[in-house]
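ok so heres the complex, two chains, lmk if somethin looks off
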Amino acid sequence: MGDYPDADEEYELMYADDLELLRESEEANVINKKLVQARRSLDFSNSNPNKEQETSLSANIDAVHNEASLVMPVTDDSSLSSCYMQSHFNSRNKRTADEIFGDIGDLEFDDIEEMPIKRQKTEEEADLELIGKILEGRRLKQLLTEPNMRFQVNKRKIDYDYKENLSLNIPRWTFMPLTNSDGERVYVRLESEESWDIYLTRISVPYAMHTSYDEAWDEAKKILEKQTEPENRQNLSEPLLNVDSRIEVDNGLLWVDRYKPLSYVDLLSEEPVNRAVLHWLHLWDKVVFNKELKVIEPQQRNSFSKRTGQFQLTNKWKGKKAEDVPELDEDGRPHYKVALLCGPPGVGKTTLAHLLATLAGYRPVELNASDERSVDAFRTALQSATLMRSVLDAEKRPNCLILDEIDGAPLPTIELLVRWCMATVADVGGGKKKNKSQPLKRPIIAICNDLYAPALRPLRAVSLIVHVGGVSTSRLAARLARVAEYEGLCAPPHVLAALARRAKGDVRTALSVLHFIKMRAKQNPSTNSMQEMKLITSRAHGATRRKMARKWPTDAGGTVTKLSLRMEDVISSSIGEKDCQKGLMQALQVIFTVCSEPDAWNSVLKTVTAAGEYDRLADGIFENYLKARVDAHLLIACETLDWLLLHDIISTWISRNQNYTVYSMLPLCLTRCQRLLATRSPQYIRYPMQAQEEGSSLDIFKFYKVDLVNTPPNGDGVDNDWLTRPSAPTRPSAPIRPSVPTSPSAPTSPSVPTNATAPTSPSPVYKRTSELDGILWSVVRTASPSIYPSRRALLLDVLSLLPHLLAPTLRSANVQLCSENEKNALRNAASAMCDYGLEYVQQRGSDGLYTFVLEPDIYKLAFFGTEERARAPPSVRQAIAREQQLEQIRRNEIQMGRVQSTDKPQNTVRVTPTADSAIPNHLQRLRPKEIERAPAKTENVHNYDLACKPSVRHAMFRLTLQSVFVYLSGSCRDLSSHVCTERRQCTSKLHAERVVAANRPLVEATSVLALNPSFIIRSRTPPGCSSSCFLTFRALYANAVECFVGVHSVPVKVDRPVESRSDAREVFEDMLYFH
Amino acid sequence: MSLWVDKHRPKDFMKLDFHKEQATRLKNLLQQSDFPHLLIYGPSGAGKKTRVMCLLRELYGSGVERLRQESMTFTTPSNKKIEIMTVSSNYHIEVNPTDVGVHDRVVIMDLVKNVAQTHQIDASGQREFKVVILNEVDDLTKDAQHALRRTMEKYVATCRLILIANSISRVIPAIRSRCLTIRVSAPTETEIVSVLYSVCKREGLSLPSELAVRIAKASDRNLRRALLMCEACKVQQYPFTPDQKITEPDWQVFIRDTASMILSEQTPKKLGEVRQRLYELLIHGIPPDMIFVGLLREIVRNCDMTLKCQVASNAAMYEHRMKLGSKPIFHLEAFIAKFMAIYKKFLEESLGDAF
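and the predicted structre for the whole thing:
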């Protein structure tokens, strides 16, 4: 305590002050024999009314004060500390304080005034400071006992009176509730025998200075016995009696409930978590209690140093600051209407919610999975909880709804909740729903295990998400020690530590195991593993004398039995070992971290086995091992890979032969890698994303998130904790983070080869593999049967060179003007495309331009990131596309011709109906138009037909048809001008706009029909008659017009009031006649 | 049929450009009007398929050229529907059972039985057996191969099998012994050059001899590749010039670059970069054994003689292990890591000697 004022002393001062106040209020309580409970600031609300006016932060500070005053010791030697505390407080007067604190007493009260000034500091600092203080407060209770014990000894006895050991109010010291015959509840101080013994040893020391040890001992003992006879009887007999009777009386009460924390300091969850929830609860003060809150500017909350790494685990807490979300909305309610606590079972989420709600002055109303949660029932519950107030509750506290196990609720219920929360004052005012006459004005705390349950998705977006992590081993062990002490279980610390370690942060399990062991011991004392032993105190005769002095009914056999917990009990209990699932990332973390446990090999093996998923684990090692250890000669890499290869070979062998006899070898291979790869430095381990299948990645990602929650946050106690829990991240600066699959800097993006642009797609390997495989497959399928190639040859030889063949060098001139050579090259390319089933398809790029894209895109398959360079220029593509279509027609015709020549004439007749059946119904009704009386109308067309070769003619028709659709699908503007230019324009340009019609089903159906050249050919009836063929086309055209006008009458009307519809039709007719 | 590879594929035994002796022997075999099951193997691009088609034509006449493509569906024992493409004429059916992966056994059993159990309807003047062509037999699973061997004997009266493989080392001995194995070796470079000449002549082009030799060299004695490369050259630049750039398949270039990366630096970081490139190759479907071969060839070129043996034996070992395993990327990387370790040690030792 050299350089005053440091934080400890400062805190001590505050502490002392509060305790004094507490004592005053307590005395008042006893005198008045009335339950005076604070509305929300508990004891201090009366004595320190000015605090009530303070901001949310000061409310928190209040809470801290309260915590300090609510002395329910957490530490191992709790009864000791409680003894001490009690005596210290009771006997303390001003002088004592001066003695302790020297000449600094005058600062005591400045402390409170100083707080607002401190609040001017950044939020972060204040947070840290507060957390530091709370943690300090916990430590203090331990510290205080040791050095000052002797100092207080003498006073203690003098001031020990009955008033301090009995209370009508819930006392702050450890107590046992007793109910007398009138139903009045009295609280009796609880002290254990050990504390007495230790106490006795302590006070004996001063006497040892001048007399012989034994003499002094006896003397002191006698004095003490005399002095404390009545108390002894009370204190020693009561607890044990109580424990015994309680087990018989309230057998049904689980230890989890019996020993649930009653004050903030007793909470086992991590400090940031507690604070986050409490802070959020205090944000409601304005709405609920009409108290002014000082809204902290989001900017102030931004600066976040590395030290707050501990906050980052409660991600929203951090996220809220980062996103600059104001804490309160315009109605004065918190931005997040719901706090969503999530975490593994048994870590105390429900307890936390209840306790904090009570502390903040609410009456917790719980709604859990056992209640009906249909939408109606839920609405009723919601209304009753948020809009009404309990009549019976004497203090008229507002409700705080706690929705437990919400991840099991049906989706509509959750949606209702979200709607309820989102309704603002304005909304509700507007909406005339009589039921929802008020917006939500009470805090709602939702609790879930699985944050990523599908039903919770809507809720996640609107709620403050607080991850409640597992309780750290040391703290859990300390708590277990206390419980054991209460229950009269003699448990050595190492046993409890082992139990805590095995419980892995699960308080409930740990307590249940204790409970179970105790109950078993009671039921069959002879066969169980519990030891019955005589109550051995440090001095036997003292104990016996004390025993003689009291006579309690259970002491029939004359021996006091005390149950002791042994290591075997913990080991034989099945928790933690069986069925424990480790996340993949946890296992990876273990593999890449040096294991400090004595039996490293086995513990790593155990983790690996628990994680399962050996294949994926191997992937994980494979993807991370290169960065694990400095390995200039790559010897570690070789060795690691050898083990991985062995793993791969074994697992392949297993799956091939379906023989699982060697399955147990797999984890061994992986565990070997730990020897090679483990380092002490923290590792940044990536989730194995590269080789995994895409579909499952999301699930795994989800699980991983949960794992992240499971790892204890780096609050207090982690520094010594991580030695015992190798899976815990060693430093807050190296949290395990999954690599996000969609991030642009994802690890899959390959290194850039010098001569190629980077293959940009960061998508997982699996996705791209299947994509490229699909390309290959579609080529295999569509390639003409005469060249039916094996896949391997196709991939390695043909497809890798084919793109070069499809890019002939052409002058950028009209195709008609090309030289013979160029035409040949063009034709070659086109026919090669036909051979391999390739096609140019128009696609609209992101810039709105249409480009010809090869379908299937073998460029992607053939090139490694250089495909753009090798693609043919657009003009060439366009030319090839046209040529390819013609070639396709030609081929179909040849095939048809072959069919016609080889088959009988009836066959041709039969072809037509089959073709017809492919026509959708709306086309079929137009069939009658094919009758022969049309030729007069189509005279010129007929001539035109005669002028062309049949194949060319068909192509022309097709192109015209396309342009018609372009025409139809356009926005109907400048129809006439369009028609004028139509004939001159390069049709392929218009062709491009065909895509516009893509979302118009009818037009598309027609166009697809029309664009299918084989259909065009097949629909000729009879073959060779061009005029009737054209009639068919006409029918199609007309139909297309109808479709268009029918479907798009609305947009057309919007564009052009009345005339456009008829316009379109007229222009269209013109066009048809022109042809 | 516009690519030179397809267009100028000989359709008759007499028109084959190389292995003429073998062709005569095959022809003689067929003139007995019967032949045993055949197992034709040889490297890719040697003309196995061409010979099979010649053989069928010799057997059934030009009717075999009228091909149709059908897809057949099978149901696996686990009730999974699988679909496979077949190419068939009236006389034969060709199928690639490895397309369905591990379910190839079902295909073999069902398809071969189906075909074999139906007799030719029009037996007059025709052979009384059909031909089933199975591609890539060496990639068949062991199950499928075992399923095959009984079928081969049982239905020998109604069907003949022609198995095509790259190498018979992975064909089980039971099948090998039931077949007449015919090896079609890759054409020599001079043979390739002569084929190139004849093709160019038929196309009416003049091919400079230097270019032809270069193409033959670059083609790796793969006639298909040689022809495609030649045509690619023609598309890019005609008239030919002797020092024209020959387009190679991009994956070969990629593997070569990867090999030079490996040789340039031997660190874990580089290994990580190489891994990405390996992934890229695997994504593109390049068979891992080809990657092994390509890498080894490039690496060995830059190695000291003493290292060559070591590297090659390592490559063989890792490739073998890869066949046993199922994650090629592990094995490829293991080989590269091993090579890097060896090479680095070697470099340091030689440097140490120098000082």
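quick notes: Chain A touches chain B through 75 residues (CB under 8 Å). thats all i got rn
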